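ugh finaly. both done.
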Amino acid sequence: MKIHYSFDDFEEIKNPVVTTGIFDGVHIGHSYIISRLNELADQVDGESVLITFHPHPRKILLPEKVAELKLINSQKEKKIMLSTTKLDHLFVIEFTKEFSEITSEKFVTDILLNKLKAKVIVVGFNHHFGHNREGDYEYLYNLSKKRNFIVEEIPQQDIENETVSSTRIRKAILEGQIMRANAYLNHQYFIHGNLYNTGQNQENELKYIIELDEKEKLLPPAGRYAAKIKQNGQIFSCISEIIETSGKPKVFVIEVENFTFNPNKPVNLYFFKRLRFFDEDPENFIKTRETDKNNVKRLIY
């Protein structure tokens, strides 16, 4: 997957099949769109292209509510997930106030058609784009007759009769319903960040802390979780503890297996299931760790 950061500096893309969106979580619905994108690219002997934006548009358009913005993925996490989808090209475009004022007509004609030379444009169900979200599938369909490109709309994707959306996934994570969130995502919810040894020892076990990439990263509620941690291709089962101190959540990793990490290097921490919420009694929380360690091994292996 080639990553681009501008519409003005890239080599010509062969018969581009293009979609746009935030793709927070890269959930099962997003995966279906990308899979279809790749299928269509094969059919027209072209290359698949996904356009996303950073920072999140809400940070620019609603700065007064930026504290409320919580995202399933940081930018690094999104790139990690998208790199597994066989996508050919990813455009990460800086979202500014000026960019937000581009009309849907100008975005499609000037950027998608004139610059990228899109052969096919794929949109998700009920997708809107451009200034004031004025662009939609009907607009694209009508324009395609004049400009000789193909447009396709992807239908809604359901799991257990519930519409999959990033909003539902965020709600599940916030409630600590990790298994439900993972079902919606079709992969393990995870955290990417640098790992540091805290110097603390928990009953002869090392305790680490993960430094998050972005403050907008959505975290589950304080508690203990069955997890796996991956670094340099090595994967180990572990317990993750999320504890709030001074109103700020911190993510800790408690060793379950014997492993050696490279200090101060990035890791992925994959969540499988909530074991327990944080108990107001710290002693009880510590006493239950041995039971939770056994549950981790039972749940993950």
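ok and the 2nd:
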Amino acid sequence: MKLLPEEFYNIPGTTIFDADQSRKGYWLNQFCMSLVSADNRAEFKTDERKYLDQWPMSDEQKMAVLERDLNRCIALGGNIYFLAKIGATDGRSFQQMAGQMTGMGEQDYRDMMLAGGRSPDGNRFKHEWEDA
């Protein structure tokens, strides 16, 4: 059940983290929060799949984590503030993660942000991507 007007769900490049996304990603986000514990981080890094299999996440969510496909994690209900725990576990900064998620790499992402942020050129509404 979407609580916001439909136009909010069609913002280019944006996934709205609403109640539906929260429910969809509940266990994914709980897994991420487990990584605040040093013992859990060590267990995860020892055997990532075994650790993930302790959580009632979908196979698609688990694969997205294993592949470190953070954009897919977001689409599957992950919240970026929780997903940052995966990056921290891997020794990666939020800036490195954002660079990966944009396909720019860390230095290009940093340069773009220092220059004032991303240009809206090329942004499309979801229906435009589906029609392309």
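summary for the 2nd one i guess: The chain has ten helices and no strands.
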